[in-house]
């Protein structure tokens, strides 16, 4: 079978809820992938930042293989000998007292929202059913009904009503708007430190620390969704560290699974996490021993290879090189670390540019029509980035 055969199968038997770039990936290693015909590409999406450690990192693969010989799934009806080690590693790495493991990112968000509502009822004494949570316009927190109930993007929410109530949406980047939206039933503010899916929207300096101050002053929780920005992607372990704006709850996912399996979690301190008691929340697969082994190895790679430093340094270089491209269609280049985007003028269709990038050995995907995100695995070397940049700038200059 060739690439076209695989695409035909996908289209014939799959729901059409994605519009992929027409490339089939059958092998991957580090920051490169190959199609069935043997063509080589740089991966500049990293599975939406889930492959920060690079494809098939040998340390993570070895941990997975070793665990496959022992035990993979126990459910939480019993203890296993890996979960505690994983939770400790995650707490040590993030600087929180407790962690609650789930699988996909949206489940981590759901867990954070449930924690905040319960905390509001049980610690703050808000009448159950009255809790509200402030979120930001342009957010992306996943695809469940709760997550799309927060969304301001019609593609995400249209015709999925009725929506989950209890959310108040304010403009992203405007801390005073968030402050003004707080009422006596507000339990939390939830934002992404940088809005990834919205097109790598970086808020003004001081926004995250202002939110931290507002939440503290008003006795409400600050929740950061670091599912896309976390684990070194932006040049820090977590994007909030740029402003010392430590949230009360952090949602984590994607790169926590080291590109091998879906692993997500929230981290928080005792006072918040203790609102969960036996039977009040859970997941069949959350905390499974295979995920625990992979999660520990995924964090070890981030630590041992100093990937936040690589992301910071190469990110500065990437933006400088791409900003030097002269094109009447490009409006701006923005990002932090190795989470970057090229924003074209309004109504520009970036899909053909993504096809041109593919022809030049670069896989990237447009978001919102006129924006292309560039987010390679953080293990990319300087030489690989130079090679990729020559191709990227060549294509961008020609659009
Ligand atoms: C910030 C953010 N939150 C949540 C999610 C949802 O994660 P998942 O697709 O694993 O449910 C994503 C996915 O892109 C994301 O970028």
From TrEMBL:
The keyword Transferase applies. Signal peptide: none annotated. PROSITE patterns: AA_TRANSFER_CLASS_3. Belongs to the class-III pyridoxal-phosphate-dependent aminotransferase family. Its EC number is 2.6.1.13. It comes from the Bacteria. It comes from uncultured spirochete. One of its GO terms (biological process) is L-proline biosynthetic process. Keywords: Aminotransferase, Pyridoxal phosphate, Transferase. InterPro entries: Aminotrans_3, Aminotrans_3_PPA_site, Class-III_PLP-dep_AT, Orn_aminotrans, PyrdxlP-dep_Trfase, PyrdxlP-dep_Trfase_major, PyrdxlP-dep_Trfase_small. Pathway: Amino-acid biosynthesis; L-proline biosynthesis; L-glutamate 5-semialdehyde from L-ornithine: step 1/1. The keyword Nucleotidyltransferase does not apply. This is ornithine aminotransferase. One of its GO terms (molecular function) is ornithine aminotransferase activity. Its cofactor is pyridoxal 5'-phosphate. Pfam families: Aminotran_3.
């Amino acid at each position: 079978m060739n690439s076209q055969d695989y695409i035909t199968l996908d289209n014939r038997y799959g729901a059409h809820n994605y519009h992929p770039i027409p490339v089939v990936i059958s092998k991957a290693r580090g920051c490169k992938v190959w199609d069935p015909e043997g063509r080589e590409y740089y991966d500049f999406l990293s599975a939406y930042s889930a492959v920060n450690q690079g494809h098939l990192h040998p340390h993570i693969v070895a941990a997975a293989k070793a665990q496959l010989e022992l035990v993979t799934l126990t459910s939480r009806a019993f203890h296993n000998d890996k979960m505690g080690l994983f939770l400790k590693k995650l707490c040590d790495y993030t600087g929180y007292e407790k962690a609650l493991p789930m699988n996909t990112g949206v489940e981590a968000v759901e867990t954070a929202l449930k924690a905040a509502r319960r905390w509001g009822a049980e610690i703050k004494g808000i009448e159950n059913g009255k809790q509200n949570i402030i979120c930001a316009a342009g957010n992306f927190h996943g695809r469940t009904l709760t997550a799309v109930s927060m969304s301001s993007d019609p593609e995400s929410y249209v015709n999925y009503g009725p929506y989950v109530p209890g959310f108040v949406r304010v403009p992203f980047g405007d801390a005073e708007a968030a402050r003004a939206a707080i009422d006596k039933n507000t339990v939390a503010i939830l934002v992404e430190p940088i809005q990834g899916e919205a097109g790598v929207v970086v808020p003004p300096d001081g926004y995250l620390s202002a939110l931290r101050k507002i939440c503290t002053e008003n006795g409400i929780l600050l929740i950061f969704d670091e599912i896309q920005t976390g684990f070194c992607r932006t040049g820090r372990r977590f994007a909030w560290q740029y402003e010392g704006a430590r949230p009360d709850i952090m949602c984590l996912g994607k790169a926590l699974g080291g590109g091998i399996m879906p692993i997500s979690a929230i981290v928080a301190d005792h006072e918040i996490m203790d609102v969960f008691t036996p039977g009040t929340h859970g997941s069949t697969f959350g905390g499974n021993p295979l995920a625990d082994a992979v999660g520990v190895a995924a964090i070890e790679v981030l630590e041992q290879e100093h990937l936040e430093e690589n992301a910071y340094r190469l990110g500065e270089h990437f933006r400088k090189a791409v900003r030097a491209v002269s094109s009447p269609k490009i409006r701006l280049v923005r990002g932090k670390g190795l989470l970057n985007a090229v924003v074209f003028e309004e109504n520009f269709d970036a899909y053909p540019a993504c096809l041109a990038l593919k022809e030049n050995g670069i896989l990237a995907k447009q978001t919102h029509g006129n924006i292309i995100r560039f987010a390679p695995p953080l293990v990319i070397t300087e030489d690989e980035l130079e090679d990729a940049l020559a191709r990227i700038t060549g294509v961008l200059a020609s659009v």
